[in-house]
Amino acid sequence: MAGKAHTAGLTDLLNEARPYLARYLAAWAPLVAAYVTVFLFTSSIPFGWALFTALANILAPLILGVPVFAIVARYLFRASPLVQLAAHMALSLVFTFVWYALLMQELSLIGWWRFGEYTPTAFAGPALTWQLFQGLVVYFLIVAGAYVIVMMVRGSYLIAGLVPPPRDAEPLPDPEPGASRIFVKSADGYLPLDFDDIVSISGADDYCEVRTPVATHLIRMTLSAFEERLDPERFVRVHRSHIVALSRIQRVEPRSGGGLTLHMVGGLTVQASRAGAAALQPFLVT
Predict the structure, then answer these.
(1) Rounded to an integer, what distance in angstroms lies between the CA atom of residue 100 and that of residue 113?
(2) Cα 264 to chain center, whole Å?
(3) Closest by Cα among 178, 182, 221 to 202
(4) DSSP alpha helices (H): ranges in the chain?
(5) What is the DSSP code (8-state) at residue 200?
(6) CB-count burial class (<10 Å; 0-12, 13-18, 19+) for 175
C-alpha cells in the first residue's frame, strides 16, 4: 500500500509538470544548441563521438529539470520565502550530486561503447569543483525559468503575464449568492458575464481567470469567493486551482494516480486531482 501511495504521489507530481513541458523544452533548446556547438568546436575526439558525448552531458540536467519544475509548480510557488529558500538550498545540492553521478555513469558507458572496456569515470580536483559549481548554476537557471513559466501559465496574474492588471480592472461589488451574472470591467465599461457562458475558472492568489467559449476574463476575486456564487449542481471544483462547468465537459479520461483529464468546450484541457475526481464521481455513470 505504501508503494502504491508513493507511486500515485509521484504521478501527481509529474502530472503537475505536464502543462509546462513544451515551454520547458523550448527554453532548453538554445542552451542545448550553444553547448553542443561549443563542445564540437573545442573537442579533439571524432565528430560523432563528440556529438554523442555532448548530448550525454545535456541529458541528465534536462531530465532532472522536469521534477524541479513539478516541485516549484506544486509546492514552492506560493510557499513562504523562508520555506522556498530552505527547499532550494537542499534541492540544489541533491540536483548537483545526482547530476554528477549520472554524468559519470554516462561517460563510463560511452567509454565502454567506444573502446570496449568499462572504466569508471570520476572527476577530481579543479574538474570536480567546476562540475559541482556548474550543477548549482544550472539548477538555479532552471528554477528561474520555472518561476517565470509558472507565473505565465497560472501564476499570480495567470495568463496576464508578469504585469498586474490595473486596479480598476475589477468587477462591481460582490454579487449576492445565487446571482446568475456579474459585471466585469472592460475598455467599454462594465460588461455582463453570465454564469451560463462559463467553461472554466482558474484561480491564483486574489485573481480568477474565467473562460467562456469566446473570451477570457481576468477578475479580481479569489477562486473560493467565486465558488460561493456558483450552483454546485452545475459547477465542480476539480482541482485546488480549477472549477469547471459540468455542461461544458465534452469528454472525461481517467489518468494514472486516480485523477481525471477533462476535455472542455473550445479545446481546453483541465487536469482533475484525485479529490476533484471524487467530486465528479456522482456524475459518472457506468
Answers:
(1) 20
(2) 20
(3) 221
(4) 2-17, 21-42, 47-71, 81-115, 126-154, 223-228, 274-280
(5) E
(6) middle
Cell of 192: 455582463
Query: pLDDT digits over 210-254, tens only?
Result: 888 888 888 888 888 888 888 888 999 999 889 999 999 999 998
> How many Å apart are CA 121 and CA 103, to the nearest integer?
9
pLDDT, the chain, mean: 77
**Sheet with strand 216-219: strands edge to edge:** 216-219, 207-211, 200-204, 242-245, 235-239
What letter does residue 253 receive in the DSSP assignment? E
**pTM exceeds cut of 0.85:** no
Query: CB within 8 A of 141, min separation 6: which ones?
Result: none
Domains of the chain, start order: 2-154 (no CATH), 181-283 (2.40.50.40)
182 with 193: CB under 8 angstroms?
yes
Cα 99 from chain centroid (whole Å)? 21
CA–CA dist 43, 106 (Å, integer): 17
pLDDT digits (tens, 9 = 90+) for 108-148: 887 788 777 777 878 888 888 888 888 888 888 888 877 77
Distance between CA 214 and CA 135 in Å, rounded? Answer: 45
